[in-house]
Amino acid sequence: MSQRRLIPMRSALDDPALFGEILPGKSWALWRILLIASQGETLSAEERLVFLELTGREREPDAPVDEFWGVFGRRAGKTRAFAILAVYYACLIDYADVRAPGERLKVVLLAATTKQATKAFTYIRGIIEGVPLFANMMDGEPTADTIRLTNGVDIEIRPANYRTIRGETLVCLLCDEVAYWHTADTAANPDSEILGAARPALATTGGPLYGFSSPYSKRGELWNTFKRDFGPDGDPSVLVAKGASRTMNPTLSEKVVDRAYKADPAAAAAEYGGEFRNDIEAFITLEAVQACIPTGVRERPPVAGIRYRAFVDVSGGGSDSHVLAIAHHDGEVAVLDAVRELQGSPDAVTVEFAGLLKTFGVTTVVGDNYGAAWVRDRFAAHGVTYQPSEKNKSDIYREFLPILNSEQCRLLDVPKLEAQLVALERRTTRGTGRDIIDHPQMKGAHDDVANAVAGAITVAKIEERRKIIFTRENIEQLKQLTQSKRPPHQMFARRR
Fold it and tell me: Which of 71, 103, 269, 291 is an S-S bond match for 242, by CB 3.0 to 4.6 Å?
């Protein structure tokens, strides 16, 4: 064992001089049971009944677990539990057997955003500064993201990113709201990427991984671990618990939860019921996207004689970007040639977009109906015709999917494209039963790059299908055209 506990978790939770005032009373009883069990400490017969309800297992682990995953509704107390764990692993465990001279070990908390991680950091700092034993261990004043301790351990918070976790020696990794990491714009499917990079960082110390999150769709590391390890047949070294918000936190207002269920039962079941959503599924696989993206090819220059098509996704305000994508068809394949993502005033963006379009010889750009009048006028001022798309966004994505899956497109290695395509979701709307394809409905999620690219590719494929193949029969029909009342489009075979 690389970690020697100076005090058992149960004793620390009971001691008023340690954590006794942090998780007090009946409202925190379930959390105390789970934290004690995660350390392989013995539960009472009464506690085991609660443990069975939350984990599907009759007995607690007989040793500290390697991983503890919690699927809990919002306001369930996850952040305070994380704070307890961070301080426990930083202050109440001896790492002398694994710490090299001068080496600093780390307890790291990862969250989807720095703002989210900062909330947990506030709890952690409050515990350390409020408990004299821990306060005396502080090595200088905390920074905005780090608390240094005299025992050679640092507590750090970071936004979830697989690049920054490599090369570290961790004694504990805390993953906050991991179900929502897959919406990051900087990497596709980052939850698996990050955890894949983090687990080796725990190997030297034998430290645990804790992942607590509200559930979302049935995909990603949280869902996969729950499906595989929840209940009696799961890996004994991986503990998985599941609980609704008011189960874990009885002080949460029942009116708030009831109101949420009346407004949107499916969303409330995930937000407060701790249930994974059945009405959301992934739309595009990472493998399909990567098969169509050549590494390092970020743009293709215009070539004389090729007819290019373009699609623009105009910003709806806020943090959305204006995105322009240009593509052409080459035989059976649609080729993406250029992508521009800009933020700023519509006038300045239109000037730059119009310049790029003219470079490729494009005089008409297709886009959605958002703000069609002002968008049309701005492009027209620069000699470009704006044509509203006949298809809505969901229809464009549906048409794009088989092109992607059959590898009938060549994309570009541009920022955000891979991540946004993989993050797309198919949601079934209540009442109508219609499927809507869009980015995840959560803060920070976008699909502007994906939409522009899918639009350009589908427009290019449509152009390809409009080519007419002239056969002897076609030529004979052409001779008869002036004598026929049939519409010209019925006289010729089209190539699909």
Answer: 71
Query: How many other CB atoms are found less than 10 A from the CB of residue 383?
Result: 10
Structure tokens at 397: 């994505």
DSSP state of 482: G
Rounded-to-integer distance, Cα 125 and Cα 134, Å: 10
CA dist., res. 464 & res. 460, Å (int): 6
Taking the C-alpha atoms of residue 466 and residue 108, their distance in angstroms, rounded to an integer, is 56
Phi then psi for residue 117, to 5 deg, are -65, -30
d(Cα 440, Cα 282) in Å, to the nearest integer? Answer: 10
* β pairing state of 385-388 and 364-367: parallel
pLDDT digits (tens, 9 = 90+) for 346-375: 889 999 999 999 999 999 999 987 766 788
Residues 194-215 have pLDDT tens digits of: 888 889 989 888 999 999 999 9
C-alpha span between 164 and 166 (Å, rounded): 6
Q: Which residues contact 328 (CB under 8 A, 6 or more apart)?
A: 306, 307, 308, 309, 334, 335, 337, 460
Largest CA distance in the chain: 100
- The pTM assigned to this predicted structure is 0.73
Residues 162/194, Cβ–Cβ less than 8 Å = yes
Q: ∠ CA 46-50-51 to the nearest 5 degrees?
A: 105
Ranges in the chain annotated CATH 3.40.50.300: 4-278
Q: At residue 233, what is the residue type?
A: D
**Pick from 183, 247, 261, 208: which is nearest to 93 by CA?**
208
77 close to 248: Cβ distance less than 8 angstroms: yes
Which residue spans of the chain are classified as CATH 3.30.420.240? 286-465
Q: Give me the phi and psi of 185, to 5 degrees please.
A: -80, -10
Strand pairing class (67-72; 238-243): parallel
Contact (Cβ atoms closer than 8 angstroms) between residue 471 and residue 439: no
Q: Return the closest-CA partner of residue 247 out of 223, 273, 271, 270.
A: 273
Dump pLDDT digits (tens) for 269-282.
999 999 998 777 77
Q: What is the CATH number of domain 286-465?
A: 3.30.420.240
Superfamily of domain 4-278: P-loop containing nucleotide triphosphate hydrolases (3.40.50.300)
Q: pLDDT by residue (tens digit) across 222-239? A: 999 999 999 999 999 999
Summarize pLDDT for 98-117 with one digit per residue, the tens: 888 888 999 999 988 778 88
Residues 6+ apart with CB under 8 A from 77: 28, 31, 248, 249
* 3-class secondary-structure state, position 197: helix
Structure tokens at 216: 């979302």
